UniProtKB/TrEMBL annotation:
It comes from Actinoplanes aureus. It holds the Pfam family Hemerythrin. Residues 13-143 form the Hemerythrin-like domain. InterPro entries: Dimeric_xanthone_biosynth, Hemerythrin-like. This is Hemerythrin domain-containing protein.
Length: 165
């Protein structure tokens, strides 16, 4: 491994996870669009897809809160305010995920036009917060993570750097 490989690893891995989570969110959005158009997944499959996305995102954020953020705070103390803001985002995202799960849990087999505005509003809010959060986090942390050398993360990648459950 060259020194460049070591330098780039963690920030690039974070970006890969964010891309993967964005794709999962896009797939969920497409599934919801298809459901309300009457041509998509049954609600049970849509809920399973939502659960997979929600679990992956929660695992990622929990991993950041427990592993990445304390390590970054120790290495770059001037980022503590940024890390606090990101944790606040995590709480807001978790709340929005819970709202979306509840709405999807209540969907009938056939699309209900009355449910569509509520589901779409929650999905738009969730998507907006996630996109803003990811952009801010990438802007503030990728370079820092790329500069970090944490051998145990290479040996045993923490949850926030993993693409699979």
């Amino acid at each position: 491994m060259t020194s460049w490989d070591r330098v780039a690893a963690f920030g690039n891995q974070l970006l890969e996870v964010h891309i993967w989570l964005r794709e999962m969110l896009d797939d969920l959005t497409d599934g919801i669009d298809d459901y309300f158009a009457g041509r998509g997944l049954p609600p049970t499959d849509l809920r399973a897809h939502c659960l997979a996305f929600c679990s992956a995102l929660t695992r990622h954020h929990t991993g950041e809160d427990r592993t990445a953020f304390p390590a970054i705070a120790a290495e770059v103390p001037e980022l503590r305010q940024v890390l606090s803001e990101l944790k606040t985002d995590h709480n807001q995202i978790e709340w929005l995920l819970g709202n979306l799960r509840k709405l999807l849990d209540g969907l009938p087999e056939q699309p209900d036009p009355a449910a569509e505005p509520k589901v779409r509003a929650e999905l738009v809010a969730l998507s907006a917060v996630i996109q803003t959060h990811f952009i801010y986090e990438e802007k503030k942390l990728i370079a820092v993570l790329n500069d970090m050398n944490v051998p145990e993360w290479r040996a045993n990648p923490p949850a926030f750097l993993q693409l699979e459950e």
